[in-house]
Amino acid sequence: MSDIQNRKPADAATSLPGRLGETVELLSWAEDRAARIQLLIDLGAHFNEVAVSPDVATRPFDEAHRVPGCESEAFVFAVPRPDSTLDFHFAVENPQGVSARALALILGRGLNGVPPSEVVRVDPELVYTLFGRELSMGKSMGLMGMVAMVRELARDAVKQGDAAIDDTDDAEQAGRGRPAAGVKGVEA
After folding, report:
1. How far, in Å, CA of 164 to CA of 172, rounded?
2. Which of the 8 DSSP states describes residue 176?
3. Is the pTM of this model over 0.85?
4. Closest CA to 36 of 22, 25, 20, 47
5. Omega before residue 60 within 30° of 0, cis
6. Tens digit of pLDDT for each residue in 111-138?
7. DSSP helix/strand/coil, 166
8. What structural domains and CATH numbers belong to the chain?
9. Is the distance from CB of 148 to CB of 56 less than 8 angstroms?
10. How far, in Å, are 78, 88, 97, 178 from residue 103 at the CA level?
11. Quick one: pLDDT at residue 44?
12. Residue 58 and residue 60: Cα distance in Å, rounded?
């Protein structure tokens, strides 16, 4: 069982990077589950319909960016920043995907600009901290898949950064120094 499951949202927030921890802490102030769910629905309503700009990706989106098992047809993209952090972009194709839209907004606002080495430590069980354990199996798996995909893109960026640090004179021949797969603008 994950540590995050055994903590209250405010406790879990202290271990989360960037603005993600602040958001979890804010949601913990909700009086009860119904109030927290209403806050999450309100957040989902602020999700931009065209969250992925054409310079990041265009429809139809590459299936490699589709979140496996997500009923809301979510896609996740990562764009590197000059400081080696990432900006995460989300598309939620199902207009009924309110929970996926809320999570996309929370993850984007909370993890954009955070070092990938910190993003990879975000536990997918964050979903239970945000939404509670009352979610259906399908919904929880899809939302946890969104967190897992963000972590995977961050892991790719960490690997790419490690390769760049370890780079030698002949990086091309060694196959290192190449950008990570899945990170926009770069190929493995």
Report:
1. 11
2. -
3. no
4. 25
5. yes
6. 999 999 999 999 999 999 999 999 999 9
7. coil
8. 3-166 (3.90.1010.10)
9. no
10. 16, 12, 10, 31
11. 83
12. 6
CA distances from 76 to 64, 142, 163, 164, 185 (A): 9, 12, 23, 24, 14
Q: Which residue has the tokens 């589709």?
A: 66
Judge whether 128 and 140 are in contact, CB under 8 Å: yes
7-37 exposure pattern, b = at least 16 Cβ within 10 A, e = fewer = eebeebbeebbbbbbebbbebbeeeeeeebb
- Residue (of 81, 86, 76, 143) closest to 111 by Cα position: 86
> CA-based Rg of the chain, rounded to a whole angstrom?
17
Q: What angle do CA 88, 90, 96 make, to 5 degrees?
A: 155
The predicted-structure confidence for 140-174, as pLDDT tens digits, reads as follows 999 999 999 999 999 999 998 876 655 433 444 44
Q: Tokens at residue 108, please?
A: 């984007």
